Amino acid sequence: MACGTLYLVATPIGNLEDISLRALRILKEVDLVAAEDTRHSRKLFNHYGITTPLTSCFEHNEARKGERIVELLAQGRSVALISDAGTPAISDPGYLLVCRCRDEGLPVTVVPGPSAVITALALSGLPTARFAFEGFLPAKSSHRRALLAAARGETERTLVYYEAPHRLLAALADLREELGGERRVAVARELTKLHEELFRGTVEEALAHFGAGRVRGEIVLLVAPAEAEPERESLEEALARWHAAPECSRKEMVKSLAKRFGLPGSEVYRRSLELEGDEGDGQSDDSDH
């Protein structure tokens, strides 16, 4: 007897019209649909006249329920897995079940569709060539700050996080502490719904904007890459430039470079002479360094 197939079916992230014809067909044809929240998914089913039996499969019962689903698949039954919104197994239940099916050699396929990550990224106006999805930010501030601190030197990728609306201000405050108030961010809220909002600006501006009232709806927080700092000129390069075309006296040059590089004037003076290859050169007229 042939094994059944597990279908990972993406469902709307807000607007019920955002579901594919294939997804509707699969949800009607399979023997069972495993849903993150059967009450939530019932709204989708009622809207499209889907009568397939529903069973729950969420974070706290996925391991146990997964065993039953694997048994059904082995018996030739087909099962669709859906989350409350978006694609299953992406910051939603499904990973453990997919792993179990792969280990058992059972067929798994995806019916692609809505994704809050991709939707927010495309809408954000932040760089999209490279990005990293980091899932939900930790609820505890110390853990959240440790994660955000790792993004200080990220100069190539936009970072994407999920966040709960009641923690958005705390997350932005932690962002300011770890990355600075001028780091560019985008905050997507209520994606594809009637009151969809995309805020784009600095961390400081985001705090002012969202601090003005209660934050509602599911949140996607995007952090732009840090602007790469221009390559800093080394002391040796600065000294060589001065020797090639002096624009001021040695005394003025030593004072300026000592302040710029945080070094004693005597150290800058010594290295200047070493660069010339003659430690005695210039001491008679510039000894007042």
UniProtKB/TrEMBL annotation:
Transmembrane segments: none annotated. It comes from the Bacteria. Its EC number is 2.1.1.198. It is an enzyme of class 2 (transferase). It catalyses: cytidine(1402) in 16S rRNA + S-adenosyl-L-methionine = 2'-O-methylcytidine(1402) in 16S rRNA + S-adenosyl-L-homocysteine + H(+). GO terms for molecular function: rRNA (cytosine-2'-O-)-methyltransferase activity. InterPro entries: 4pyrrol_Mease, 4pyrrol_Methylase_sf, 4pyrrole_Mease_sub1, 4pyrrole_Mease_sub2, rRNA_ssu_MeTfrase_I, SAM_MeTrfase_RsmI_CS. Gene3D superfamilies: Cobalt-precorrin-4 Transmethylase, Domain 1, Methyltransferase, Cobalt-precorrin-4 Transmethylase, Domain 2. Belongs to the methyltransferase superfamily. RsmI family. Catalyzes the 2'-O-methylation of the ribose of cytidine 1402 (C1402) in 16S rRNA. This is Ribosomal RNA small subunit methyltransferase I. The lineage of its organism: Bacteria, Pseudomonadati, Thermodesulfobacteriota, Desulfuromonadia, Desulfuromonadales. The gene is rsmI.
